[in-house]
Write a structure and sequence with these properties.
Elements: H1 2-7, H2 11-34, H3 44-67, H4 80-104, H5 111-141, E1 154-159, H6 163-175, E2 180-186, E3 196-197, E4 200-204, H7 209-216, E5 220-223, H8 230-240, E6 246-249, H9 253-258, H10 262-265, E7 267-268, H11 271-275, H12 284-291, E8 295-299, H13 304-313, E9 320-325, H14 328-341, E10 346-351, H15 357-367, E11 371-374, H16 381-386, H17 388-408, E12 413-419, H18 428-444, E13 450-456, E14 458-460, H19 466-475, E15 480-482, E16 488-489, E17 491-493, H20 494-507, E18 513-516, E19 522-523, H21 524-534, E20 545-547, E21 567-569, E22 575-578, H22 585-600, H23 606-616
Parallel strand pairs: 1-2, 1-5, 2-4, 5-6, 8-9, 8-11, 9-10, 11-12, 12-13, 13-18, 14-17, 15-20
Antiparallel strand pairs: 3-4, 6-7, 16-19, 18-22, 21-22
Helix pairs in contact: 2-3, 2-5, 3-4, 4-5, 12-20, 13-20, 15-17, 17-18, 19-21, 22-23
Length: 625
């Protein structure tokens, strides 16, 4: 349609001429119909009156069209409301012409002809504009829909034939036609098959995705269904993995509402999309009753779990949110973020180490917290194998300091953030967290404070998580590194884990270890393959997966529960609780004394540390590498 490009600079002149032609033929057809209709030639007197009316009508129509700036409207983007406006303008213009007949006292057409012609004029003007609009749209669509062009234009397939798909298509047709060729649309509704949206055909359902992508050399799949349940999303994404196309996905409606530019909401597929976990249902009233108007303190508030705890706690309007961390940069970031979003809530960012008992007492004395969430810890397994004494100082003695300070200042409830690595630990980090659980349960027996722990597995996107590492490695062209082909882990999103922590807090009566339902364990190798495929690459061809071997302290399978522990259900189907251990503070003090002696020993090595850890934590055993 190169002729349209050449004529575009004369656009308004052409539109005015077309409108004048519409006016002429509308009056001519109207005059034929009003007369006897047996002849297509009007008598001389009647023809003169019609021509005078046409001339006056052209002046009236042009005046109103320019006043309403109709010629400034871009035809490509005109919609139903624009066409209704054309009809209304034409009807009003016909009445004005009829009124001028009596005001000017000239012999022009009758009121009946003016009204009939006005209807014809509106219909003709709208019709030719719709035709032009569709020519322009189909011109964009037909510039190489299936065959990939020479200028690296990408062929795309859209999943979902709803409003989101319409907006995406409109955006691409408007200003991205040089970047994307739309192959077609996928929709599971059989009644929509072969229908079109903005000129783009619905080619089939989810079972046709692989064949369509192969036949049309699809480079990108745009998943445009925002209101889909997680299981169906997972199934469709699994089908997409069988293609060579990269997948971009539209998130939930909340994200779309926050950002009105729908096309910009498309993002890369996250691993949580593949896992297909259903949203958590919370009893918000119980959570709010514990937090609202209370002082809440979070240790490790700058970390991935601690910062999400702060984001969710503040929604329940605490009197003061005290965020404690030793690392200033992350703490400063979360402080700025929350103060901007919640200017009416008092937020205190406090730099402190949980190893410093005196500093902790100063903070607790000043703020007198009602609830304490203890997320501060060294969590990186290989690093703690290399620096085991630091894990003991920070995780065990740091937790002991916080627990004792909570007891002294009459904190209502204390929640320890624990880990699945505390179960039958094979590494120093897991062993220290197991010791923390023991401290919490023992202290609960002698304190008015209600002490409890929440245990869960890996959280997606957290510091040290494999998912950000895999994405970085894929972006760099590989290889993606996996320690063992059979290694499995439990996964949960950070918000999901924190929501369940808050819910578990409402069930705590003291001494419990709450265990979160993490779903089915996931093979890390399979996870790596999925991320590579959904990034548009073929695993072990375009992006290699390299097996590096288990790291120190790492085991193939994580557990959430010890064999000697029993689980009981809670009111929430994803939270379980185990019975308290038979351990006293005297036992804890004996164990801590052995650790104190270890720390005071000069040149204590890893073997010395492991020996003491085995003595104080019977379930600890070294991993078989």
């Amino acid at each position: 349609m190169e002729i349209l490009k050449k004529l575009s600079k004369y656009r308004n002149i052409i539109l005015i001429l077309c409108d004048m032609i519409c006016i002429f033929f509308a009056y001519y057809i109207g005059a034929i119909l009003i007369s006897d209709g047996n002849s297509l030639i009007l008598d001389k007197y009647y023809a003169e009156r019609v021509l005078k009316t046409v001339a006056i009508s052209i002046l009236v129509y042009q005046l109103i069209f320019h006043i309403t700036k109709r010629y400034n409207s871009i035809i490509r983007y005109e919609e139903g409301k624009d066409y209704v406006l054309y009809i209304i303008i034409c009807i009003i213009s016909s009445f004005i012409v009829s009124i001028l007949k009596y005001i000017l006292g000239i012999g022009i057409a009758s009121t009946k002809l003016n009204i009939l012609a006005g209807i014809f004029i509106g219909t003709m003007m709208v019709t030719y504009r719709v035709i032009i609009r569709h020519i322009l749209v189909f011109d964009v669509f037909n510039r190489g829909v299936v065959v990939k062009s020479d200028n690296d234009t990408k062929n795309i397939l859209i999943i979902g034939a709803g409003n989101a798909a319409h907006e995406i298509i409109k955006t691409i047709h408007s200003n991205m036609s040089e970047i994307y060729n739309i192959v077609g649309i996928i929709d599971d509704n059989p009644k929509r098959l072969n229908f079109t949206i903005s000129g783009v055909k619905i080619l089939g359902n989810r079972n046709d995705i692989v064949n369509i992508c192969e036949e049309n050399k699809v480079d990108l799949i745009f998943f445009s269904i925002a209101n889909i349940d997680n299981e169906n999303k997972k199934q469709i994404l699994n089908i997409c993995q069988q293609t060579k196309a990269k997948v971009r996905i539209l998130p939930g409606m909340k994200e779309i509402i926050r950002n009105k530019k729908l096309f910009e909401n498309l993002r890369d597929v996250e691993i949580e999309d593949i896992l297909g976990r259903e949203p958590i249902k919370l009893d918000n009233r119980n959570i709010e009753s514990l937090i609202k108007d209370k002082v809440v303190l979070v240790t490790g508030a700058g970390g991935s779990i601690g910062s999400e705890l702060c984001r969710q706690i503040i929604k329940y309007k605490p009197q003061i949110l005290v965020m404690l961390d030793i690392y200033e940069n992350n703490l400063y970031d979360i402080e700025l973020d929350l103060k901007a979003k919640y200017p009416k809530i008092k937020i205190e960012a406090v730099i402190a180490s949980i190893r410093d008992k005196k500093r902790l007492e100063e903070i607790f004395k000043k703020y007198n917290p009602y609830l304490v969430f203890h997320a501060a810890a060294h969590k990186h397994v290989p690093l703690m194998e290399n620096s085991p004494l630091e894990a003991i100082k920070n995780n065990i003695f740091g937790t002991y300091n916080v627990v004792n300070t909570c007891d002294k200042y009459k904190v209502k409830r204390f929640i320890l953030i624990s880990t699945d690595k505390a179960v039958n630990p094979t590494n120093i980090m897991g062993a220290t967290k197991r010791m923390c659980e023991m401290i919490v349960q023992a202290k609960n027996k002698v304190s008015d404070t209600e002490f409890a722990a929440v245990r869960f597995g890996n959280v997606l996107g957290s510091n040290g998580s494999v998912v950000p590492l895999f994405k970085k490695q894929i972006a760099e062209g590989g290889p993606v590194t996996v320690t063992h082909k059979e290694i499995t882990r439990f996964f949960m999103t950070i918000p999901e884990a924190v929501e369940l922590v808050l819910q578990a807090m409402t069930y705590a009566e003291g001494g419990e270890i709450f265990v979160l339902d993490m779903g089915e364990p996931v093979k890390i190798y399979d996870l790596a393959e999925s991320l590579i495929r959904l990034s548009g690459f073929v695993p072990n061809q375009e992006i290699q997966i390299e097996i590096t071997g288990l790291r120190p302290g790492e085991k193939l399978y994580e557990e959430l529960l010890m064999q000697e522990e029993g689980l009981e259900k809670t009111a929430h189907d994803k939270i379980f609780v185990e019975e308290p251990m038979d351990i006293t503070m005297d036992n804890i003090k004996e164990k801590l004394e052995k650790l104190t002696n270890l720390l005071s020993k000069e040149n204590a090595n890893l073997e010395d540390t492991k020996k003491v850890i085995k003595e104080i934590i019977p379930t600890y055993h070294e991993a078989n590498l």
